[in-house]
């Protein structure tokens, strides 16, 4: 992917907070903590009384918890292609899982963020259905990518993505029931789980559900690791945190199936007090309907960048008075 177009991107997407290289933390850092194949109902804050997810529950309580957030598909690559472009995956022929299409080089969210002076990293899930180099749009993309990279200038705002596969479908398929950890050690009892009516009530199914919930508890510790690091470095007061899954759960009627359970995702945004005005009055649980096309324009709005006109989503956070009217609740 060519990068020579970066300097011209902001001629079509106006910068509101100030010049692209005037750092001094005039703009918030933005941290995405993304997970895979996970339903909202795998976390305590969404009503699961069997799991222990205190960190995520606390993040939801202090931030905005979206109860009606949906992906555009039930597989990773179409969903992530939508997230990174702000358009429905079908717009650029990216709707088939793991396909490759020639897409314009100026449609990727990190390019706009970098042109505005952000340091952009991804560790390390791209999965974009494009012939363009998935990594070239980032300052750093791979196992070592981090906002702590010395290449980031002092006080330079960052847009950092971290991805965990602790709840990926492959984890369930990789272990037979007799190879799994003792669920009692994780505080889970498969016999007490409430199964949906469309699955058979057999030990193997109960083990699958418990194993996935165990992964959710691992995710909770993973999220806590990042929040602790932000606090240690005193970055927490200037960092907006997003937590969401790429699509719905991986159990029956989830991944690969176009049911609500396949598209419904956990979605939490925390804005520190300094930036809480960008929430436009939103707090706590909200039934506002949001979708993945809205994510890129929302991040741009939070960064003070007017979303380009071709983006099909609408900002649900940020300087709404300056930009297109957001989708109504």
UniProtKB/TrEMBL annotation:
The conversion to 3-oxoalanine (also known as C-formylglycine, FGly), of a serine or cysteine residue in prokaryotes and of a cysteine residue in eukaryotes, is critical for catalytic activity. The keyword Magnesium does not apply. The modification 3-oxoalanine (Ser) is found at residue 76. It comes from the Bacteria. Signal peptide: none annotated. Transmembrane segments: none annotated. GO terms for molecular function: arylsulfatase activity. Keywords: Hydrolase. This is Arylsulfatase A family protein. It comes from Alistipes finegoldii (strain DSM 17242 / JCM 16770 / CCUG 46020 / CIP 107999 / KCTC 15236 / AHN 2437).
């Amino acid at each position: 992917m060519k990068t020579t177009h970066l300097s011209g991107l902001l001629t079509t997407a106006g910068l509101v907070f100030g010049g692209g290289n005037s750092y001094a933390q005039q703009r918030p850092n933005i941290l995405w903590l993304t997970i895979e194949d996970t339903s909202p109902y795998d976390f305590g804050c969404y009503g699961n009384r069997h799991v222990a997810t205190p960190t995520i529950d606390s993040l939801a309580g202090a931030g905005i918890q979206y109860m009606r957030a949906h992906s555009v598909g039930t597989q990773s690559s179409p969903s992530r292609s939508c997230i990174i472009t702000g358009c429905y995956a079908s717009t650029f022929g990216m709707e088939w899982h793991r396909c490759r299409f020639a897409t314009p080089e100026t449609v990727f969210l990190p390019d706009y963020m970098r042109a505005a002076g952000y340091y952009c990293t991804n560790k390390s899930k791209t999965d974009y259905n494009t012939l363009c180099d998935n990594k070239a749009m980032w300052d750093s993309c791979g196992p070592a990518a981090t906002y702590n990279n010395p290449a980031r200038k002092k006080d330079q705002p960052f847009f950092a993505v971290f991805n965990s596969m602790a709840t990926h479908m492959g984890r369930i398929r990789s272990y037979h029931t007799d190879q799994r950890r003792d669920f009692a050690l994780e505080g889970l009892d498969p016999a007490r789980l409430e199964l949906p009516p469309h699955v058979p009530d057999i030990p193997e199914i109960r083990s699958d559900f418990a194993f996935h919930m165990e992964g959710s508890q691992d995710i909770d510790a993973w999220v806590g690791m990042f929040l602790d690091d932000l606090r240690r470095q005193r970055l927490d007061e200037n960092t907006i945190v997003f937590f969401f899954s790429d699509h719905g759960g991986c159990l029956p009627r989830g991944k690969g199936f176009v049911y609500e359970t396949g598209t419904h995702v956990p979605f939490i945004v925390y804005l520190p007090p300094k930036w809480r005005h960008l929430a436009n009055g939103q707090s706590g649980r909200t039934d506002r309907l949001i979708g993945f096309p809205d994510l890129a324009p929302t991040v741009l709005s939070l960064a003070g960048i007017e979303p380009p006109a071709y983006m099909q989503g609408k900002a649900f956070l940020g300087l709404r008075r300056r930009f297109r009217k957001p989708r109504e609740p």
